[in-house]
Amino acid sequence: MMNDGKQQSTFLFHDYETFGTHPALDRPAQFAA
Predict the structure, then answer these.
(1) Is the pTM of this model over 0.70?
(2) Exposed e or buried b per residue across 1-33, where buried means at least 16 C-beta atoms within 10 angstroms of its C-beta
(3) Residues near 3 by beta carbon (within 8 Å), at least 6 away in sequence
(4) In angstroms, what CA-CA distances link 20 with 23, 28, 29, 31, 33?
(5) CA dihedral 14, 16, 19, 22 (to 10 degrees)
(6) Cα–Cα distance for residue pair 10/7, rounded to 1 Å
(7) DSSP state letters, 15-31
(8) 31 φ/ψ angles, rounded to the nearest 5 degrees
(9) With contact defined as beta carbons under 8 Å apart, do 27 and 18 qualify?
(10) What is the distance between the alpha carbons of residues 24 and 7, in angstroms, rounded to a whole number?
(11) In sequence order, what are the residues at sequence separation of 6 or more whose Cβ sits closer than 8 angstroms to the Cβ of residue 33?
(12) Matching InterPro entries, A to Z (predicted)?
């Protein structure tokens, strides 16, 4: 990893949810970027 003395900020996105009318029975979907 290059280090030029400047602070590099990193943005991480994570989402975990279910789709449908009954969350307990629906399959979960997980997204990360």
Answers:
(1) no
(2) eeeeeeeeeeeeeeeeeeeeeeeeeeeeeeeee
(3) none
(4) 6, 10, 11, 17, 23
(5) -160
(6) 10
(7) EEEE-SS-TTTSPEEEE
(8) -125, 140
(9) yes
(10) 43
(11) 12, 13, 14
(12) RNaseH_sf (IPR036397)
For residue 25, how many C-alpha atoms fall within 13 Å in the half-sphere facing its CB?
Answer: 3
* Cα 21 to Cα 33: distance, rounded to the nearest angstrom: 26
pLDDT digits (tens, 9 = 90+) for 1-33: 556 667 767 777 777 777 777 777 777 777 776
